[in-house]
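Final report, Chapter 2: Outcomes

The project's central promise was a pipeline that accepts a single protein chain and returns its three-dimensional structure in a standardized token representation, suitable for archiving and comparison. That pipeline is now operational. To close this chapter, we reproduce one record exactly as it appears in the project archive, with the input sequence first and the structure output second.
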Amino acid sequence: MALLAAAAFCVAQARPAEDVAHLQERFDKETDGVRKAKELQKLGDAQFGQERDATKAGDFQTAGVILEKYRDNVRAALDALKKTHPQAEKHPGGYKELEFHVGLGLREVRDVILAMPEQFRPPMQIVEKDLMDMDLQLLRLLFPRRPGEQPPIQPPASTPKKPEALDRQP
């Protein structure tokens, strides 16, 4: 029984690159924003697994490339969501899943930044900032009305002034 479990584990460990490639292909072909966000959950988890393996092996360049691809996938999923389901507050499906997974992605990026040498950090800090910006954008789309937050001040509409000569008529 133990040998069977060990063999299954070894087979599962031999296929991650193939799985990521297959999941990436499915993600790229998906056009509906909600389904694309759900595909990102599976793809992102597989990418995180690859990134952790690369980090453990000390291959920070590969880990960085994987996380940059994850960021690009998040951007693609967000764009697809905004295109196919523009009202996030009324139809939050996909947006919530994406926002949750972006939070996981931020934790992964921060963990990698702490583990990697200084020369590899600047690109990962850009990835972190991009993910934070997208996370904030997702939250604003999901919750456009926030209690206590003042709406932006609109300048008053300009009205044409009357000439002074017309104002001083007897």
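Archive annotation: The radius of gyration is 24 Å.
This record, like all others produced under the grant, will remain available to the consortium after the project formally closes.
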